[in-house]
Amino acid sequence: MTTLQEKNKAAIRRFNKDFVETGDRVSYDELVSEDFKNHGGPGGREGGFQFFSAFRAAFPDVKVIIHDQFADGDVVITRKSYRGTQTGPWMDIPPTNKVVDIAVIDIIRLRDGKQTEHWANADLFGLLQQLKAP
């Protein structure tokens, strides 16, 4: 028998593989609720989609590596990294063709297998250092 926590962790893994890595809008719509709230990031459901669309335009070969994942109740915490090559502009930085690793910790609340709330801590300072390094 699969527990709620196992199902929620699987939904987050699917989001990272089927949406973050590919940009698949159908997967995004299936995995993110209409009333989605992104705390500390681009607002709402469409804001999250637009953020990742811009991110994938800058890092089209992005891969998500999940290092740890924990679930408690309806919340999943994931420690992961994004690895990709910057071939498009990002944060006013022209393409560098550098491969970068970005450390991320996500906290996501789910309801019926869909994300309803999201908090994240991404090492954007580390990303900028990697992009600007000689």
Describe it for me?
This protein has 134 residues and is an alpha+beta fold. It has one domain (4-132): Roll (Nuclear Transport Factor 2, Chain: A). It has four helices and five strands; from the N terminus they run ααβαββββα. The chain has helices at residues 4-20, 25-31, 44-58, 124-132; strands at residues 32-39, 63-72, 75-85, 99-111, 114-122. It has a five-stranded mixed sheet with strand order 1-5-4-3-2. Strand 4 and strand 5 (114-122) form a beta hairpin. Helix 1 packs antiparallel against helix 2 (25-31). The longest helix is centred in the N-terminal third of the chain and has 17 residues, at 4-20. 19% of the residues are buried.
| SSE succession | HHEHEEEEH
Strand order of the largest sheet: 1-5-4-3-2
Shape call: globular
User: Helix count?
Assistant: 4
Q: Strand-residue fraction?
A: 35-45%
Oligomerization state of this entry? Answer: single chain
N-to-C span: 52 Å
What is CATH's topology name?
Nuclear Transport Factor 2, Chain: A
Spans with pLDDT under 50 lasting ≥5 residues? none
Number of domains: 1
Kindly state the number of beta strands: 5
Helix content: 25-40%
| Major β-sheet profile | 5 strands, mixed
* Integer average pLDDT: 95
